[in-house]
Each structure stands twice: as C-alpha cells, then as structure tokens.
Give the backbone structure.
Amino acid sequence: MNSVGELSLWIEIPVAVLLVLSSLFALCGAIGLLRLKEFFQRMHPPALASTLGAWGVALASIVYFSALKSTPVLHAWLIPILLSITVPVTTLLLARTSLFRKRMAGEDVPAEVSSGGRSENGN
Amino acid sequence: MKRLFPAPWLSLALWALWLLLNLSLSAGNLLLGAALAILAPLMFAPLRPLPVRIRRPGVILKLFFLVGRDVVMSNIAVALGVLRAGSKPPRSRFVKIPLDLRDANGLAALSMITTVVPGTIWSELALDRSVLLLHVFDLDDDAQFIEHFKTAYERPLMEIFE
C-alpha cells in the first residue's frame, strides 16, 4: 500500500473516528463478557464486536481504500454480510445447549415452550 | 432454464460474491463465477426442499433500514448497560413471544435479525412454531417489547415470505 500521507484530512478523520468507535464497541463487548455473571446475560455483549464493531471497521476500510485507489473498493462489505449469516448458527447452538443443560440441572430457566415431545429448532 | 438455475437469486448472489471477492471483471473471473453460480445451487438442491418465494422488495428495503437502526440503538444500549452493570444491573430475562409467522425461511430471517440485534438472543422455538423464547438483555416492559417485535420484524417478514 502507498504511504498514508497522500490522503486528504477529510478522508483520514472519518476513517480514524470509525476505527476508534468500532474498537470501543468491541472493547465494551469484551468487558461485558468479563464482568457480567449470568450465562445468558454474557451472551449479549460479544455481539457488539460482530455487529457495530465489524461494520465500523468494514466501512472504514471501504472509505480508506476507495479514496486511496480512486475507485469504489466494496469487497470489505462482504465481511458484515457473511458474519450476519454465520453468527446466528453459533449463537443458537450455545443458547440451546445452555438451556438444555440448565433444565437438566433444574436451574431457574423457563420450561420448554413446545407442549410435549423433544424440543427442536424449526429452521 | 429452470433446470439450470433452480435458485436464480442464489446464483446471482454467488456470482456477485465471486466477482466482489476477486475485485475483477476479467473474462476468466466472469466464467469461474458463472460456473460457481450454476454448480453450487445444483449441488445444494437436495438439501433445501423449501423454495423461497420473495415478494415486496419495498418492504425488504424498509425492513433492512429498520433493522440497521435497531442494531445501532441496541449496540449503544448494551454497551451502556455493560459499563453501568456495577451500579445498575441490566434487567435481563426471558420473554415468550406468540408467533404468527410460520414460513421456515421467514423464521430463519427472523432468527438472523434477533442475533444481529445484540440485545436479543433467539433461545427456543416451539415445535409447532407458535411460540418463541427470546432472551432480552435489558427489558423494561414486556408487552411493549412484544408489540415492537411483532410490528417491526414479524409483520414485514410475513408480507415478504408468505
């Protein structure tokens, strides 16, 4: 890549703001994972990194490299799209497994929502 | 044509994905992308018996921006909730949401929306798809949340998929 110096300040400032903001969100996610106590509560903060955290970095990358090459460089946008397709799979697995284990251990979680039979995901 | 492209939208998306990943419109990449676009849906056809019928592109666009806004708001809410967790613990709990949406593809889209919004986690779907168990990070009023969930996400998805 070329040196950073040749881009105008009007490109560099928004890119820097986007990068710092999205890394702050990712940091909040990590702090949440560390500080919260209950399992289901702790599942929420990491989503900060895979949503706004990733979106901000992708957008910053698009702005920066589009300005650098003077043509739209859009492929970074695929990262948020692919993330939003794949992350539900792991989140769902974790939530279902934890619910199953907690019910087995008799902890304070809601009973199965389907009446009778094994519970499964419909999709 | 129908035999060659069982899922035309999927083919188009794969082709665009390939060209975007390679950042090139050269003849070779156009051909390789086209091969992927034709072969992948044919290979996956035995795995997906439910054809997707998508309608109302205007509703899709509206839903897209609404979810985008909710994601940003929820990100800020969860981040603040985490930072304040010491003094004011978030009121996390499970919510049972009665569902009217039955289409499997629509439900898959709904599960993507709930996962992308950091404040909600899709926890369990009843076997008959009538009830959804959702874990919410910080909840004030159950009825209001269910109302928002149904009007903002479920109704547009029913318009799109059913």
